[in-house]
Amino acid sequence: MTDPSPAPRIVVVGGGAGGLELVTRLGKCLGRRGRAQVTLVERGRTHFWKPHLHELAAGTMDLDVHEIDYLAQSHWSGFRYLMGEMIGLDRSAREVLVGPVSDDSGEQIVPQRRVPYDYLVLAVGSRTNDFGTPGVAENAVALENTQQADRFHRRLVDAFLRAQAQAAPLRAGQLNVAIVGAGATGTELAAELHKATRELVSFGLDRIDPDRHVRLHLIEAAPRILPALPERISGAAHRMLRALDVSVHVDARVAEVLPRAVRLADGKLIEAEMVVWAAGVKAPPFLREVGVQVNHLNQILVRPTLQSFDDPRVFAIGDCAAIPWDGHPGRNVPPRAQAAHQQAAHLYGTFQRLLSGAEPRPWRYRDFGSLVSLGTYTTVGNLMANFGGGNIWLEGLFARWMYLSLYKMHEITLHGFWKTALATLGRSISRSTEPRVKLH
Fold first, then answer.
1. Taking the CA atoms of the chain, what radius of gyration do you get in angstroms?
2. With CB atoms 3.0 to 4.6 Å apart as the test, which of 172, 227, 317, 346 could cross-link to 363 if both were Cys?
3. CB 377: neighbour CB atoms within 10 A?
4. Which SS3 state, helix, strand or coil, does residue 307 take?
5. pTM of the entire structure?
């Protein structure tokens, strides 16, 4: 009697929104039943929903409450977690090359490995695109991960404590923040910082007048903020930021980031103690070396089935995939959490089909609209764009609920309904006994 065929090996690289949702679904359905060996390769130890990084940077969200341990999630969901960063791909041998991991002292934790696969999904997300602008790497903070967001928040708190304690008068621009890039991240960060700085000052920092000493600058090279979203959303967000006294600069291309200022292409100097770079994204550069076609942003070119053009066993989802957007000639599906969520759900069904001997089906992006949160002040956006015959324009409390529901959908996919509901209730109770902003 011959041994049964080994279960196919599905390897997902990248534990962001799409990647973690995919391995969780596959692990629960296929991994636990022995129908597939599901593996997540991820360099980090914990997962945090990237659309909330601006709240982490402002200090209005607690990382310890919202992060997810990959090791625990893998144990609960039936997949295997391998810590490490993908550094290469051997397509002929069907192996992912994973680099070694060391601790802060340089001592190796895990060695370099080769991880075999039958099907590979690349979900490695995106990185900041500085467009070659001088001074960005040295003088600006990006918001790619939780470490960078926490680093910015600590700098913000330190700047306020320094201003409170110093004997000399506050100098011009000492507490200014410049945000380069007025997409969703930059726009939401500007509103969140407006609230957070006032909360911070209320804890005994009586020397600082936020209306007089703190200036937030939002800088955008395009003619309007939120250039990728409908003009009506952009206009509503702009009016709200103006009401908050945020200085919005449009048609303003950054020529250089200095240690305490931003120089625009027209020579104008914007003084800022802290600079956040949120102007653009691109896929990780190592994707150019893995042997599949990529575009100028390092994104993998994929078919409608989410398979790469060069290898049907290699899939790509999320920000690292270039997927033509039906009905929008010359444009790709935008790098949004809702797109990654839909792609993960589609690939979950694709692998069930492949294991049953069926062919994969094409994926089609369903754009349910865009929502932009301006902190507790308001949320603006539209729902059901290009779906159902028109748009429903939203603003205020209902829009805020819809915005929060996107995160709840992500949590429910990972944890189930009841665990998400109980965790949400627990956060609401503990929130009433804690400061509204992180003070360290």
1. 23
2. 346
3. 16
4. strand
5. 0.90
Element of type H or E holding 25: helix 17-26
User: Which residues neighbour 89 within 8 Å (Cβ) at sequence distance 6 or greater?
Assistant: 95, 96, 97, 120, 290, 291, 314
Give pLDDT, residue 9. 97
Give the model confidence (pLDDT) of 180-195 as tens digits.
999 999 999 999 999 9
What is the DSSP secondary structure assignment for residue 8, as one 8-state letter?
P
Amino acid at 34: G
Domain ranges of the chain: 9-126+283-355, 136-277, 369-431
- CATH (residue range 9-126+283-355): 3.50.50.60
> Residue 106: what residue type?
G
Write out the two tokens for 49: 């929903």
DSSP tally for the chain: helices H, then strands E: 12, 27
For residues 217 and 223, the answer to whether their CB atoms sit within 8 Å is no
Nearest Cα to 28, choosing from 98, 97, 80, 76? 76
Architecture of domain 136-277: 3-Layer(bba) Sandwich (3.50)
Query: How many CB atoms are closer than 10 A to CB 253?
Result: 16
CB 81 within 8 A of CB 71: yes
Q: Do 136-277 and 9-126+283-355 fall under one CATH topology?
A: yes
pLDDT of residue 2: 44
Tens digit of each residue's pLDDT (9 = 90 or more) over 274-300: 999 999 889 999 999 998 999 999 999
Angle between helices 417-431 and 397-415 (to 10 degrees): 130
Asked if residue 420 has pLDDT above 80, the reply is yes
